[in-house]
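For the sake of transparency, this paper describes our internal protein records without simplification. Because each token names a local backbone shape, the row as a whole describes the fold. One such record is reproduced below, unchanged from the form in which we store it.
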Amino acid sequence: MYFSLFVLMAATLTSTTAPAMQEPDDSIRYEITFRDDLPTWATVRASMPYSPTLLISKYGAWSQSNGWGTYVDEIKVVDEHGLQLAVEDGERCSWTIEASKSSRINIEYTVDLSHATIPDKDWPEGPKTTAAYWDGESLFTTVAPLLVYSDKTATVRIHFHVPENYRLVTPWLPNTTTKELHCGPIQEATKNVIVIGNPELVDVQTDQFSVSVVLLGDFKNIGPLIGPAVKKYLRYYEKLFQEKKKHKNLIVMFPQYLETGEAYENSYVHVSPNIPEEGNRIIWSGIIAHELGHFWNGKQFKPKSWADGNWFSEGGTEYASTLAMVRCGEISDEQFVDLIEENVGKYILFKKGPPFDSVSLIEAGSNKSANNVALYNGGWVFCFCLDVLIREATDNQKSFDDVLRRMQTRFGETRKQYGLGDLIVNTNQVAGIGTGKFFERYVINKETLPIGDFLQRAGFSCAIGAAAAHVAIDPDARATSKRPVFGFI
């Protein structure tokens, strides 16, 4: 049925007398073919429900005049009776189609991915974690530029065709009969990535995860370093979140001018100016821990409003990933202390004066790039203090871990979005005490956390410098503390 559908489509794009085509469901089915002689060009054919408007994502192409539509050309549309429909440019990231009584339409277009060859510093959106990258042998691209769609709620199925000597790597499992990839709802399908070509590929298997780690450019040959770290973190998070479902995921790593990561629905991208090695493990391992943590906090359980929830999605994940690093043995106790110092120091600096003193944690999420320190480091410090609060209230029987688990159970597994009130209720249930005032003072309002007091209560001694940007911690103080709540090290 799938193959014949696109044979018919090819005919109807040039003929008005082809037989009608019927689809059994409301899914959108794509057939995407990458050119043998130029893999950065693709031809896309699709069958989808009729709508007077066609759409394409702008995610990753925010400054482009038409989002990812800037790179789409030669759109042709025919109805199920073989009649070609007129197509015109609509508002940003859209096209309008002439009226039709057809329930489904077939479209064809080309996609120019040659921006993959643009040097990263010349790409207007910043690091190419949300775009495409070509290393001469393999192409990484986000899925968003490839998918024009008519229905925001439709389920997506894709059949890729790549050059004969190329490998296709995706975060989805194919149907064994049709070879289609069932990619979920369109909004999730567009927020994933693929790779075609001949990359270094490392397969990581755990009880619940099958992960392909793709290494491009100068990052080839580091598989023996990266694979074990990924496996270690996955096993840790599986236990933390009590994961029961099976998952297929993709990790892509390649060189860029900035050190950062970008998490997608079933994949994430990791870039760095430095080749990962043992000497910089604390950096690249920390990004792996953080981005894998987003599979749950940020992708499984999501806030109703990203502007209001960014502080917990990023700061909570950053704190959880720090714990993952020390618990998995990826960093030493001394390096753990260094990370405490770094986060506390940046938080104090962030709270010291303009422009940050006028922004609360919850307000910071409305401008993620400008308020990066508030969200990541400020969120980290709040979660650290909240962890201390919970451990004290429960005689160290409960912790921030339990908050994350409860969020996954109540919102991740049910796919319900949460608000700040939901997070507070969950925390209250874990701690057995009311924490609403704590959230109100330090998340909603702009009060500065008494971090020195919380460090001491956690079994550390500290000295905050006069410049309010340096913290000195004595880890040996934990041995004599009356309540050494951080016994997880």
Remarks:
- Residues 97 and 479 are 71 Å apart (CA to CA).
- The longest strand covers residues 41-49.
- The first helix runs from residue 2 to 12.
